[in-house]
Amino acid sequence: MARTFTFGGHNFEVAGDAALYWPEQKMLVVSDLHLEKASAYAAGGQMLPPYDSLATLEQVAALVDQFVPEIVISLGDNFHDTDGERRLQGRASALLKRLVTSVRWIWVTGNHDPDVQGHWGGEAVETLKCGNVIFRHEALGAEEGPEISGHFHPKFRQAVRGRHVSRRCFVRSARKLVMPAFGTLTGGLDVQDPALIAAFGCTDVDRVEVLVPTRDGIALFTVPASHALAK
Question: pTM for the full model?
Fold first, then answer.
């Protein structure tokens, strides 16, 4: 089964289970890394294993080695909070420095890290346009062109053989594509949640498509927008 699909007139390939590769632009796209989430929680008294940043970056590095992109775009909430960029240290910071010097690395600012500066390298922007495709952290309802964003951490949940299965997924309409969260400690929002469906613009879309990466391809489902918004 193919792991490719079309959006905005271009072919994209699902990379791993939460990233995109755009062959035409030699571009790898990830979203919502939420680096240093564990240390942010620890500062608030909730102890989590402090290995999330390294684990997340190792997964990014594996995809960089596999696809050999010229550009990597990280679509916002790169760090879990505004100070996370400077808290990163040790093997995680060394790996990030190696990554950002091996490719053109672009940080898109997010609501968790609006002041990201590219402390470890790379360049920071609010939005980026490549060809006819707009990249930003959170979907903008008024955006008319093809737009790729993150923010909502979409997950597809389904009952299978008496148990509930939850998988990261991409959500697509003709104009918008929302990516799953890439970070190790990120949660998820159900694809039928009204907040996620509303981001697609309820006035011009009656359904959205859910793309769930599988081992060999992509499983495609549809979600009626009107049903979700009525919840």
Answer: 0.91
